[in-house]
């Protein structure tokens, strides 16, 4: 499992983004093995950097990569490593949903209603098969519509999260991935670097 994350503090003031690719050592600590420093961020630039990494390390082909839901990273990884399984950090999935339901677009939901939405996401994540996910997500969405009195949240989930469930739900994680659900190994590295 490779953990990939970018930092936007420090070098950003100079116009650069710093990406780190992190592996877990024998003690369970995240250790960076590659840095990508770029002045422009796009899928093409991230792809170029990953191709350069591969050209210098021809045997490097990760089985899986954990990312925050960054489409630039996702597209680049899928282009360079088409057989690699990409997983989304569960914390960042919940954070994105929480931010949306507290926004004006998301209806500025009360804490009680936000809890209902997060509980629904957790129920969907627990599904161990895609078939179970379809059944549970249908039921959960119907319940959410009834409890919230609107289909605003379920419309958002159906557009932004349900089609990509294999990236965050348990049925998409049925392989050896160090039991990692979050990108904390990379996040922790950046925290140490910044402070």
From TrEMBL:
Record-linked InterPro entries: MULE_transposase_dom (IPR018289), Zinc_finger_SWIM (IPR052579)
Domain MULE transposase intervals: 2-95
Pfam family membership, one: MULE
Protein name as annotated: Uncharacterized protein LOC113096482 isoform X2
